[in-house]
Amino acid sequence: MKRISIRPWPRWARVTRNLLLSLLLALFLWASVGAPLPKAAAVRRFERECLVPYGETVLELEEGEAAFTPVCVSASGEAVVAVGPYLQWLDRLEGDGPTLLPLRTTIYSVGWGSILSHPAYMLVHPAAETASAKLTVHNQQGDFTAQGERRGEVFFFVMPDPNGWSSKDWWEPEGYTYDLTCYDAAGGVLYP
Amino acid sequence: MNMTKWKWLNMAVGKIRFAPDRNAVYRELEDHIEDHKAALLARTPSLTEAEAEEQAVAAMGDPEPLAEELAKLHRPWLGYLWRLSQVLLVLAVLALAAVTVLRFTGDIGTRPGYLWEALTWDYSEYFQAKEEVLRSRAVYRPAGRLEVSGYTVSVKEATLDAVGPDDPYSYRLLYLDLRIRPSWRGECMDLRWAVSSVTDSLGTVYPLGTDGGGKPWWGWRDADSWGDLAPLGQKALVTLWYVPEGVEWVELTFGSGELARTLRVDLTEEVEP
Fold it and tell me: What percent of chain B has pLDDT over 70?
């Protein structure tokens, strides 16, 4: 009977095979856990999936600053997108000019021995001369006022803790109205 | 040259720097010497074990040139890379096993059962007519496809149903069985945000979602909500609610700004279901 001789693969071929298989499996594993990407790349991917133009990063929240951080916000002329762990959303912009948008996560602070949760808003595309801004939000829970803090390319408003939470009162357009005033460096009113 | 077996073997493998290879070659050479020794003893019974071993070692020759050759054949960096590749492969297989278990428990990605449902997707499973009285049905297979930002969107089939009890309580729904081929990146289109407007030939604007009141609106459902199968192609159902009578086409606009593209779905040429 003829003996069949099976030559083992040379070592370099086995190394190559193992590395390629490991890479393939790693790719599959990465896709299985939601294909996580670094912040900036995750924002770009979300913009592609939503078919909006790439924007510029206008705000970044750091780890521990809010629920679901880190969050990265990117704004183009067409839309503002925000991406963080377990959340991503998009707001379409209508026209040029300053636009006030809710931040769909809460900002933490420590007070009275506990963690407080604050709703927050961002003013995107503020006029270049804007030096400060004040926002008052009116909803079912009452009236809340905050001074804007310039962070990156936006003005950031962290509202007082409402001591009770309803996303409808803070995030849904029909849930709230607001008064926004922007000032220049000399204190003159720029907007409205 | 009188050299003990151990000394000869250590000299022969001494330049192999990768320890597993050195040990393997040592054993192989030792087996070779032992085989030769056994053959000598079988052929010449008058030889002692020590003499047979000495002759077997002598027959192997000078260990120095062999050591040089063996060192060239067994490069350490390839040996360490070989070990690393084995470890990586074992880790990857273990991780795959863990992920497979987590898939079945629903902790990661789409459960295998749902993946099968996504693969065998039939949009008619979600028709409202299953819940209400079907008054009329028209089926269309509109031609045409849309290229937008690397995606290719087409409507495989459209079904226009009138459901509900007698007027004025009946209403019409338009179901669009969408097929979306992704770009080379294999990313799933997020229909909730990607569809920027839905209109029809009568000028009706369909907002996303409803707050009640029987006004037109649109909604969507992905066959595979986790997007695991996106690289193979995305299937989705877009439903337009409260479609008025006399609509000849509907338009879906994908994207915004310079990326915006519109897909028109013609509803004038009915086909057999």
Answer: 95
Burial degree of B252 (CB within 10 A; 0-12, 13-18, 19+): buried
Q: Report which of residues B50 and B170 the model is more confident about.
A: B50
Considering only alpha carbons, which residue of chain A is nearest residue B231? A31
Residues B129 and B69 both lie in one domain: no
Res. A141: pLDDT tops 70: yes
- Residue B111's pLDDT is 66
Query: SS in 3 state form for chain B?
Result: CCCCHHHHHHHHHCCCCCHHHHHHHHHHHHHHHHHHHHHHHHHCCCCCHHHHHHHHHHHHCCHHHHHHHHHHHCCHHHHHHHHHHHHHHHHHHHHHHHHHHHHHHCCCCCCHHHHHHHHCCCHHHHCHHHCCCEEEEEEECCCCEEEECCEEEEEEEEEEEEECCCCCCCEEEEEEEEEEECCCCCCCCCHHHHEEEEEECCCCECCECCCCCCCCEEEEEECCCCCCCHHHCEEEEEEEECCCCCCCEEEEEECCHHHCEEEEEECCCEECC
CATH of the domain at B265: 2.60.40
**In which domain, by residue range, is B218 found?**
117-271
pLDDT of residue A31: 81
Would you call B189 and A51 a contact, using CB atoms and an 8 Å cutoff?
Answer: yes
User: Percentage of chain A surpassing pLDDT 70?
Assistant: 94
- pLDDT of B125 reads 85
Q: How do residues B76-116 score in pLDDT, each as one tens digit?
A: 888 899 899 999 999 999 998 888 888 777 776 666 667 77
Going from N- to C-terminal start, the domains of chain A cover: 39-191
Interchain pair B96, A25: CB under 8 A? yes
Tell me the three-class secondary structure of B210-271, residue by residue. Answer: CCCCCCCEEEEEECCCCCCCHHHCEEEEEEEECCCCCCCEEEEEECCHHHCEEEEEECCCEE
Is residue B101 assigned to a domain?
Answer: no
Q: Bigger pLDDT: B42 or B73?
A: B42
Mutate to test the interface with B, among A51, A78, A88 (most CBs of B within 10 A): A51
pLDDT at residue A95 greater than cutoff 80: no
ipTM of the complex: 0.81
Q: Do the domain assignments include residue B41?
A: yes
Partner residue facing A51 (CB), from B82, B93, B254: B254
Say how many domains are in chain B.
2
Cross-chain residue pair A48–B108, CB shorter than 8 Å:
no
Mean pLDDT, all residues of chain A: 86
* Chain A residue with minimum CA distance to B253: A51
